[in-house]
Design goal:
- The protein has 689 residues and is an alpha/beta fold.
- It has three domains: 28-39 and 97-306, polyphosphate kinase like (2-Layer Sandwich), CATH 3.30.1840.10; 326-500, 2-Layer Sandwich (Endonuclease, Chain A), CATH 3.30.870.10; 511-686, Endonuclease, Chain A (2-Layer Sandwich).
- It is 36% helix and 22% strand.
- The chain contains 18 helices and 29 strands.
- Strands 10, 11, 12, 13, 15, 16, 17, 18 and 23 form a nine-stranded mixed beta sheet that branches. Strands 19-27-25-24-20-21-22-28-29 form a nine-stranded mixed beta sheet, with helices on both faces. A six-stranded mixed beta sheet has the order 2-4-3-7-8-9, with helices on both faces.
- Helix 1 packs antiparallel against helix 2 and helix 2 (32-61) runs antiparallel to helix 3.
- The N and C termini lie far apart (61 Å).
């Protein structure tokens, strides 16, 4: 029977989210350099999108790979839709950057040279800087249609140059020569600060300095013109993970090296480039025309995060600073506190140092027998890893599950795992056919010969670097039902078959059946004329089976609010989804927590954990979700959801056309959800113990 329900395309929905990121750059209420940073984030997101998602679709479109969910024709159509939407967004990026950001910089006495508008008082300085600081690192490489003599590296910026010998006919192609020059970013910064002049500061791109002096590199030739280009390559690596242990380790070592030479998925070029110049490059580098993406004069705008700020009077980015909990600072032991009360930490509002302290306490606690923990994305020079190594060196048994298939972190995870293994830590590598995405830790203890285990179940990685940017939460508990289930989960990661979970919800075991029961309960309540209520906060909602359950609940009268930052394939405002609203929040921190609320006839059930409702999370990963059983913490989590739903400054509704509809209205009370929740936690922290 034909399905009556409809869904957004996953990748088109993601582009709607990334466009919402770009809109932050247009928000004049934000500090100027925070707006610039959002252009950087938008550009970086788009780069990764092409490397992974578009690269996959191109492989299907070309017939190179098969995909059960996509045909050659549908892949071609989707790539065309993506290209149209990206081109539309890039026009807005140009409008925001050139029409708003650059004039605002100028108003604040920062002149950011964009092209040929370099003032005369800087020309000699630029010539000297080029000769002394840049020229020694430039290596022009000739380009020919006959043979490829230059390999364009992934995401590196190149200058394509066309020139001809003095005294020859510029229109005669036999006398025209082409070169590419790789920007020497490892030697010279992308942005160069020039000498100030009359109370103004000046910044210029390195490529503009090269363009202004490029004639020095080619004596006897006249430079016709030069334009920036870049290649994006397929960064997805296929690992045959039906094997485990050393086989996966060896695969990862070999295949990550090939990422830099993956197939071309995007050729970005300065849209001012003449057609015949572009045609030559297409032929010389064997570029397919459907891989062409016209860009700005300056590419790789993700580098804008490095833009210098010479004007110290300019308003700085002032984000809430992580607070330390008074109820922990007044005690010598986090263990003692958690034995009496469950504890919820909200990052980055709460300090990640509390988690480090928790692990450090396990190092020196005489009652601790073992530490078990998962690692998905590890920070470089990680305090978490250093603490685990200290525990092993202090005689504790330490077991770490390391997911080697965490995309873009494979090498770092492998190096960290080998370092931990050399320190005496037991390392468990990726499971065959699965990714382990659960963010969990278990400290196994005995006090007076009685078990006193402490569990930690989080929504974000054990990564102190991302914990100051990502809005996540993590629960500490001694609840024996949860600690028992978590111990079962770690035994499952070590090969235990047919595990039974009674309190935790674990993907591939009891997660989906329990979610269906929770949804069924709200549907039954609505049918009885009572309130059916669901609030789901996630990064992404894609799985059509779970979307269908939400559509079904909506049809039966269940009121559903979705707080979803990124991909959302559910379409609101249709007859079968009229009771569903989608809220998207983009602000100072990256919303990353997964929190689920089910009304349950006035006796709410609240959960938090690692999975989004993506097919990969629900069916192809090990994920862990915990119920919130402590009434005070449950109340806190519900308050967080209510604050986010009432937010109207950085919150949008997503409509049936994937438009971001801002909730902001002039006459209403302004609620900036992240800051309101931070102040809520701050007030709670100041309550006398």
């Amino acid at each position: 029977m034909e399905n009556k329900y409809q869904y957004f395309k996953r990748d088109i929905s993601w582009l709607s989210f990334n466009y919402r990121v770009l809109l932050e750059a247009a928000d004049k209420s934000l500090p100027l350099y925070e707006r610039i940073n959002f252009i950087s984030i938008y550009s970086s997101n788009l780069e990764e999108f092409y490397k992974i998602r578009v690269a996959d679709h191109r492989a299907v479109a070309s017939g190179a790979t098969r995909n059960d969910e996509e045909t050659v024709q549908s892949a071609i159509k989707l790539i065309d839709d993506i290209t149209k939407e990206v081109n539309r967004q890039l026009e807005d990026r140009i409008r925001i950057f050139e029409g708003q950001i650059l004039p605002e910089l100028k108003k604040n006495h920062i002149i950011f040279y964009q092209g040929h508008d370099v003032a005369s008082f800087h020309r000699e300085y630029i010539r000297s800087f080029f000769r002394e600081e840049i020229f020694p690192f430039l290596q022009p490489v000739p380009v020919s249609k006959d043979k490829i003599v230059s390999f364009l590296r992934d995401n590196r910026l190149y200058l394509a140059v066309r020139l001809y010998q003095h005294g020859t006919d510029i229109n005669d192609p036999n006398h025209t020569q082409y070169f590419v020059i790789k920007m020497p970013y490892s030697k010279v910064p992308r942005f160069i600060e020039l000498p100030p002049h009359e109370n103004n500061y000046y910044i210029i791109y390195i490529e503009e300095i090269i363009k202004a002096n490029i004639g020095m590199m080619f004596p006897g030739y006249a430079v016709d013109n030069s334009y920036c280009i870049k290649i994006s390559r397929d960064a997805d690596i296929f690992i045959d993970d039906n094997t485990s242990g050393i086989d996966i380790v060896e695969q990862v070592k070999k295949k990550v090296k090939k990422r830099k030479i993956g197939a071309v998925c995007r050729f970005v070029y300065d849209r001012a480039m003449p057609t015949d110049f572009l045609d030559f490059l297409i032929d010389a580098f064997h570029i397919s025309r459907d891989e062409l993406v016209p860009g700005d004069r300056h590419l790789n705008l993700e580098d804008l995060r490095l833009l210098p700020n010479p004007n110290r009077q300019l308003a700085k980015i002032d984000k809430p600073r992580p607070m330390r909990l008074n109820k922990l600072n007044s005690r010598n032991s986090i263990f003692e506190y958690v034995q009496e009360h469950d504890l919820m930490l909200h990052y980055p509002y709460h300090s990640f140092e509390h988690l480090i302290h928790f692990l450090y306490e396990a190092v020196h606690d005489s009652n601790t027998r073992e530490i078990l923990i998962t690692q998905y994305r590890v920070a470089e020079n990680s305090a978490v890893i250093n603490t685990l190594i200290a525990a092993a060196q202090n005689g504790k048994k330490v077991t770490v599950f390391v997911e080697l298939k965490a995309r873009f972190d494979e090498e770092n995870n492998l190096a960290t795992a080998e370092m931990m293994k050399a320190s005496g830590i037991k390392i468990i590598y990726s499971l065959p056919g699965l990714k382990v995405h659960a963010k969990v830790a278990l400290v196994r203890r005995k006090v007076n010969d009685q078990p006193a285990d402490i569990a930690y179940i989080g929504t974000g990685n054990f990564n102190e670097k991302t914990a100051i940017v990502y809005a996540d939460c993590g629960l500490f508990t001694c609840n024996p039902h949860i600690t028992h289930d978590l111990h079962t989960l770690f035994k499952t990661l070590q090969g235990k078959e047919n595990p039974k979970f009674h309190t935790l919800l674990v993907a591939r075991f009891n997660l989906i059946p329990e979610l269906n029961k929770l949804i069924d309960r709200e549907i039954s309540l609505a049918k009885e004329g009572k309130e059916g209520r669901i609030i789901l906060k996630m990064n992404a909602l894609q799985d059509t089976a779970m979307i269908d359950r939400l559509y079904e609940a909506s049809e039966q009268g269940v009121k559903i609010d979705l707080i979803i930052r990124g991909i959302c394939c559910l379409i609101p405002n249709l007859p079968f989804s009229k009771n569903i609203r989608i809220t998207r929040i983009v602000d100072s921190f990256l919303e990353h927590a997964r929190i689920w609320y089910f009304g349950n006839n006035g006796k709410p059930k609240v959960y938090c954990g690692s999975p989004d409702w993506m097919r990969r999370n629900l069916y192809k990963r090990i994920e862990a979700v915990t119920p919130i059983l402590d009434p005070a913490i449950q109340e806190e989590m519900i308050e967080m959801l209510n604050i986010q739903l009432s937010g109207n400054v950085k919150a949008c509704y997503v409509d049936e056309n994937l438009n971001n509809i801002f909730k902001y209205k002039r006459k209403c009370t302004h609620i900036r959800a992240q800051y309101v929740f931070y102040n809520y936690l701050k007030r709670k922290n100041e309550i006398p113990l």
